[in-house]
Design goal:
With about 650 residues, this protein is an alpha+beta fold. About 40% of the residues lie in helices and about 25% in strands. It has helices at about 5-15, 20-75, 85-95, 170-175, 220-225, 270-280, 320-340, 340-370, 385-405, 410-420, 440-450, 455-470, 495-515, 555-570, 575-580, 635; strands spanning about 105, 115-120, 125-130, 140-150, 150-160, 180-190, 190-205, 210-220, 235-240, 245-250, 285-290, 300-305, 310-315, 425-440, 475-480, 480-485, 525-540, 545-550, 570-575, 590-595, 605-610. The strands form 3 sheets. Strands 5-4-3-2-1-8-7-6 form an 8-stranded antiparallel sheet, with helices on both faces. Strands 14, 15, 16, 17, 18, 19, 20 and 21 form an 8-stranded mixed sheet that branches. The protein has a 5-stranded antiparallel sheet with strand order 10-9-13-12-11, with helices on both faces. β15 (about 475-480) and β16 (about 480-485) form a beta hairpin. It is flat and about 115 Å long. About 30% of the residues are buried. It comes from Sinorhizobium garamanticum. Keywords: Membrane, Transmembrane, Transmembrane helix. This is Adenylate/guanylate cyclase domain-containing protein.
Amino acid sequence: MYRPKLAQVVVVLVMLAVLSTAALIHVIWQRAAGESIEEIVASLDAQTAGSVRNDLSRTLALVSSTAEIVRSIFFQGAISSNDEVKREFLFLSLLREQPAIAWIGFGFPDGRFFGSHATADGRIEMVEIGAAGAGELRPLRRDLYRPIPGDIFFEERIKAESAYVALGAPWYRLAKESGEPVWTVTNVLPNGFEPAIVLSKRVETFGKFTGVVMVAVSLRRLSEALQALNIPALSKAFVLDERGRVLATSQPSDGVMAAHFSDFPAADAVASAAAEAVSANKVDAFRVVVPNASLGPVFVSSSRLPFENWRLVTATPRSTFASGIDKNIRRIALVVLAMAALAAATAVGFANFLFARPLARLAAQLRAVERFSLESVRHHPTFLAELNDFSQALKRMAVGLSAFARYMPLDVVRPLVEGSIEPKPGGALCEVTVMFADLPGFTELTERLGPGVEPHLTRFLTIAVAAVHAEGGTVDKFIGDAVMAIWNAPGRQADHAARACRAAVAIRTAMHDEPPIAAGENAVRVRIGINSGTALIGNIGSAERLSYTAIGDTVNVASRLVNVAKERGVEIVLSDATMRELGAEPITRPLGLATVRGKARPVGVHTIDQAKVRSAGGSDGNGDNDGGDARLDAAQALRR
């Protein structure tokens, strides 16, 4: 049956989908709209920058005059800096009259501090930090006031200790060393974390240095000023200092004020566009257009502010102004698109029949292969030769992988298929728990039963593999009648030792639920050795043949603990190393020290006894009633 080539169908669909006229009209209108939008954004940026400059200038002038008033009063001796009552009245009066100011304070040469603070909830607090010795916390007094019409109302006094030392604050140190006013940006003030602009001045009284006066404006106030600007809803404005730190923003992301552009969440596309523009342009003043995956083009502009080399950065998505223009462009384009609608509908119909449905089925089949749900992979005949061959090849691959997965652990096969690990020799040291389990007396049983022993071996191996997989382990290999399993590789498992012990208990329980292989073999149905430690995990072998396995002393000890189980007459033996991984577990019983071939020192070993259940009011065989309690099953007790 003839099946057309994929390339032939694509050519036909491309010919039917030629829409060059609509594209040309769209480009022309888009260019004209873009020029108009750029003019609008430039005008808006100029208005925003002017408003911020004016507000900042007024605020800084207010801070400077307030600081000079306090300095002059102390300098003239009108009020002594040590006069607590008058000093408090002065600071409180100035703070109440200047809502933009957050702090008015004074730092003494002996480390004391006194200040008035306007809190975010509208109250005023008087903060006094006393003197203290080196390395000692300083006494703290906070008097809280609530403003009322024409007066303030005292609420409470809080006494505590403070680690704040005014002598070490930048605003104090720089002002003390300079005769000029000093501006600083700080994050920590006497009341804790509070980013602010601080103006500080050195105070001398009769030629003697008496301290430093400080006036601070919270950066929260600057953010509120930006938020009050009449800027579009999707736009944002940022104030940056000379080091690029974000001091204020018109709209904090998730309600949190970020310190740098890198602190904004990735979902904030406007901030991401602004950050990209600032990073790409090293000058203070610029206007650029930044492409953004979610918002489209974003206009970003930067301009200088009249303070400490600060600058204002605004980011405005083009869609803020272009949504209406683009809607009109789309309406015009619809007229042209209508002429191609019939051809497009025909192309869609053919594409859906020839491409979409077959490819969707193939994608679903590929996802099934990725999940190793190989039984659901089917061949779906299609009209196109390439897609039909693809479906057949996918089915053959699923059959091959299904067989391949039976020879290697699934956790190893999956990354090989995905390509996340490379099939070449190599490995890494890893903390693992290794378990060996085999059938007691299997050699003698094989001699006695011959080929008839195979069903018994298969049943044991099936039970062991199921128990290992149930606890998230990896079956490494079968060694005759023995099973080697590892935990914590390839995937990481914090409780790998407990998982191995639970798997061992499950194997033992399942084997005891099975009928004995031969008469007189009821006591010991399986022997298991468990050890934890460091092993080399990876692809071991040659360049032509590899085996994903674990090697090392930890593996050797685990295999030899099986013989220790035989010598001690128990079914499960675990080492001290595994016990340390388990922690204190009441279901284990120590067996003392055991000599293990290859180890210079004896190894401490333990076992997990068979679970015993006592009936209510019964006896444990020693004449002691248990009061109705029952011992937990060992596997249940190991679960954390």
